[in-house]
From TrEMBL:
It comes from Streptomyces werraensis. PANTHER family: DUF1707 DOMAIN-CONTAINING PROTEIN (PTHR40763:SF4), MEMBRANE PROTEIN-RELATED (PTHR40763). Residues 1-24 are annotated as: Disordered. Pfam families: DUF1707 (PF08044), LiaF-like_C (PF09922). Residues 1-10 have a biased composition (Polar residues). Residues 19-71 form the DUF1707 domain. This is DUF1707 domain-containing protein. Residues 112-179 form the Cell wall-active antibiotics response LiaF-like C-terminal domain.
Length: 231
């Protein structure tokens, strides 16, 4: 009888802390730990230990445990975990649109080329160059996952896009010069990943602009003029 009664009861929904964590959730916590380390709230050893734990965490509750003693956790308590400069979950596909791989060699994407939403770059004892200064953007948001092991990944973007980075280095350098475009329609480039005994560098290429943005603005003006003249 008890078993029958139990079977008829509706399933209890899991608490939010018991929900499975996504890669985007882990990335947001890693970014908070990077900030805490930069502010001097965590030592290098504490930072490394927590990042390692975040990467293997399974639930949202486990992730919250790594930042519960940091001010950022309490500032964000009223809202779901999120961080400025991070894309919303599900914006990017799981699989990359393009892989740029250099193993004991060099590889590049530059010139007039069409970018996808997600690009993976791997430099293992080699060098990768990703130059977006003349690229065609089919999507407003682009994610570049860069991994450097005894190698280098160099990323260049136009001056009139937004650039944000959330990666890290292990005995290596992961450097992103952030910038925000004044144009709401401008592409946003997110650079993430790791530099292990290597380097990842992303910065604007001075003097280079995304001409497509100017073209879109001109087309919008043209449509408005035609609509106005039509009336």
């Amino acid at each position: 009888m008890d078993l029958q009664k139990h079977a008829q009861q509706p399933d209890t929904p899991p608490r939010s802390t018991e929900l499975r964590a996504s890669d985007a959730d882990r990335d947001r916590i890693v970014e908070l730990l990077h900030d805490a380390h930069a502010e001097g709230r965590l030592t290098a050893d504490e930072h490394a230990e927590r990042v390692e734990g975040v990467l293997t965490a399974k639930t949202l509750g486990e992730l919250e445990g790594f930042i519960q003693d940091l001010p950022a956790a309490h500032e964000r308590r009223a809202a779901p975990l999120s961080a400025p400069g991070r894309p919303a979950a599900g914006v990017f596909p799981v699989d990359p649109d393009d892989n740029v791989v250099a193993v004991f060699s060099a590889a590049a994407r530059k010139g007039r080329w069409r970018t996808g939403r997600r690009i993976h770059a791997y430099a293992v004892f080699g060098s990768v160059e990703i130059d977006l200064s003349e690229a065609l953007f089919d999507h407003q948001q682009v994610m570049i996952k860069a991994f450097s092991v005894f190698g280098s990944v160099e990323i260049r973007v136009p001056e009139n896009v937004s650039l944000r980075g959330t990666g890290g280095g292990v005995l290596g350098a992961f450097e992103v010069d952030p910038q925000d475009s004044d144009d709401d329609n401008a592409p946003v480039i997110y650079v993430d990943g790791w530099a292990i005994l290597g380097s990842v560098e992303a910065r604007p290429k001075r003097g280079k602009l995304v001409k497509d943005i100017l073209d879109r603005v001109q087309r919008t003006v043209d449509r408005s003029m035609r609509k106005h003249l039509g009336h």
